[in-house]
What we know:
Layout: H1 2-16, H2 26-29, H3 55-58, E1 71-72, E2 78-79, E3 87-89, E4 98-103, E5 108-111, E6 117-120, E7 126-135, E8 146-147, E9 150-151, E10 154-162, H4 168-171, E11 178-187, H5 193-199, E12 211-215, E13 230-235, E14 246-251, E15 255-257, H6 259-267, E16 293-294, H7 323-377
Parallel strand pairs: 1-8, 2-16, 11-14, 11-15
Antiparallel strand pairs: 3-6, 4-5, 4-12, 5-7, 6-7, 7-10, 8-9, 10-11, 13-14, 13-16
Amino acid sequence: MSRAALRVTLLLLAALGRPGAGSEHDEEHGGQDNPSSREKGPGHSHWSYEDREHWGVDYPDCAGTVQSPINIDTAKTIFSPQLRPIQLSGYSLPANEKLKLRNNGHTVLLELPESLAITGGYAQQYRAVQLHLHWGSPSGPGSEHTVNGHRFAAEIHVVHYNTKYDSFKEAMVHPDGLAVLGAFLEVGPRENPYYQEILEHLYKIQREGEEVLVPGFNIAGLLPANLKLYFHYNGSLTTPPCYQTVKWTVFNQTMLLSHDQMSMLVMSLRNDDSKPLQNNYRMIQDLHRRRVLSSFQTTLFSVKQLPPGSDSSATTEGQSSSSFHAGDVLAVLFGVLFAITALAFLLYIYKHRSQNARLDSPTKSKVIYTAATTENTA
Ligand SMILES: *[C@@H]1O[C@H](CO)[C@@H](O)[C@H](O)[C@H]1NC(C)=O
Ligand SMILES: *[C@@H]1O[C@H](CO)[C@@H](O)[C@H](O)[C@H]1NC(C)=O
Ligand SMILES: [Zn+2]
């Protein structure tokens, strides 16, 4: 059975190869410990991951219906060709530009200069403010988003705000205020030199509130090389105050870190209780009526997946077997759409023909007249 099955097997083997793995207890487990990124919330509120089921009491938005993170079910995403590649500008920073790297008790956060921006892929321009990471523990992964029920080792979030607002703080309360770029981190065979620029400093900021200045580097190296393939949906900050003002981009390509680097990320920091800062991710949130768009075709070419009984709610590695089916339905749908469009087009042509038959000569002479005028005034 196909590449999918093979891949699952490999992942399982990989998981078993790690200490304490094998079970997906991170759901209960992740509830403990602290923080993740407060994506820079107001003030210095006290919330923790132990408490994450009750965030809604102090922060009403956390109980809303447009929350993040979510599980991305690739069989249900909607292919949207108008989602253009994400374009980054100003992301390459010289080493003499120093950036603040901080342990805020919830995550490690790198402050970014305002020169970094998203200049393509979104309808508006967004300016970067900070990036941070979410991770698990030695015994389990800790990405926030999941794909077909699969949780990745870790996740990076690069937080931006709409340039039509004066500041991040102002933007964060508006529906079109924020854009976060997210990418998954996995263990690979090699050391990742871009992530090393952050990881090698973590030992200096083990305690909450500690910070260090790090030399600038190419921040884009922390994100996938392929910025064309991504998922897009409307969601929220994944930490209090959970404002529902984030237009999310989650890349399909993952980032690879060495095993040692991943350990460094998971083991280096402590939270405000001086306990290991681990499992700083939030549980996935209900989609409610939201749609998740994809910039690429996820289903048409996918091999049929695992066995029976999969119901596409996908809580494990095994995914929905409905992708092929979805592909067929899509094909028919597009066929019908095409037919309607063609018909409309013919009608349009037909109508204009009869109109133009009357207007033809006047229109033409008008064009010539305009051109001549332009020349005279130039
Ligand atoms: C996100 O919300 C905006 C504003 O309501 C809407 O126009 C857009 O279609 C939504 N995006 C998705 C992917 O649903
Ligand atoms: C990327 O897209 C493929 C095709 O739909 C899917 O099988 C895979 O799980 C996706 N991975 C991520 C990280 O989005
Ligand atoms: Zn985050």
